[in-house]
């Protein structure tokens, strides 16, 4: 990833309406050269709509979008972009090889490149089998092969592990890591936290059409917090909220999580003990991406509810 180079994807104030439905609401995001960028959010959050705009399949209602220095859908931009949006669609009674030959003919791609991409996605042995006989994982891999045919600088993949079994998900993650290691820029949408955490350099989190965070995975996770098990728990929670603010204290399973620096652990412990609260566990921990994700998306949903 080159943090000093110009972004390959620049989106500012992106909005998309379908009648009265606001599918994307003022989204800003940047994708830097050479990174694997995870576009993370629940199903229905606006991820696919955004990617369809980036690939020129639909037009935005408002906002600015630049992809590889040009407008989405321009011929010179499409020539340098490979994409798989939603489920890949191929001719069912043609082989995987023949489906790629059809696409290569349209895109003016040399025939030897077909063999290269089939090897990249580990489909060379099944290339002559009909697409209709492929497993879901193989169909997804053929979709990625099609996205790579033009040897693109930017690869856009919409939920590439959707519907795969654990083995298929593992293979797809390995492939995406290899694409990133090969110097390509990958924009990957997903609703799977573990997937993004394992393979992405940076993450943009979208909820209800709105971007709620954009950071490196490490930045999202490195904020530390105290894990406290105390009795009575509600008394401890009320006391900590009074002392530190409601935003710093939340329940997680049977414990309290408190967003303060680890060097304040003794201070927090003394506060609870002096109030007659029994503390049976207190330690610092790195926040999991899952915790951050649910906190950000839940906060956003509550804000929208109150605003309405």
From TrEMBL:
A Pfam family matched in the record: ABC_tran
SUPFAM superfamilies reported for this sequence: P-loop containing nucleoside triphosphate hydrolases
Domain of life per record: Bacteria
Keywords noted in UniProt: ATP-binding, Nucleotide-binding, Transport
ABC transporter domain sequence ranges: 9-233
Record family assignment: Belongs to the ABC transporter superfamily.
Name of the molecule in the record: ABC transporter ATP-binding protein
PROSITE patterns registered for this protein in UniProt: ABC_TRANSPORTER_1, ABC_TRANSPORTER_2
Matching Gene3D superfamilies: P-loop containing nucleotide triphosphate hydrolases
A GO term for molecular function: ATP binding
